[in-house]
């Protein structure tokens, strides 16, 4: 039985900005911009470069290949807490979907394009 994965408008390699949370002057990530490293549609979360960094204590590997210690890594953040940055004016925007009918080889095909709600430009 096939399960439907939730759709997400934010994709890998998008530039996003954190729009909620603690402000930067209080040690938070609100207002920071970063590139999306990974997307987890099952839990509606995204991994953003340089945002939501946590310290992780790791144990040394048995073969000696991985050294133990304390490392700082990014943790996933909920997709509702970030917004895509509009390439036109570097401000956060919502995403709309524009559908176009394209004819190829006598067939009509629907092409969906992500569009900025602020400026109407393609993302």
From TrEMBL:
Signal peptide: none annotated. One of its GO terms (biological process) is translation. It comes from the Bacteria. Residues 101-123 are annotated as: Disordered. GO terms for cellular component: ribonucleoprotein complex; ribosome. GO terms for molecular function: rRNA binding; structural constituent of ribosome. Part of the 50S ribosomal subunit. One of two assembly initiator proteins, it binds directly to the 5'-end of the 23S rRNA, where it nucleates assembly of the 50S subunit. One of the proteins that surrounds the polypeptide exit tunnel on the outside of the subunit. Belongs to the universal ribosomal protein uL24 family. This is Large ribosomal subunit protein uL24. The gene is rplX.
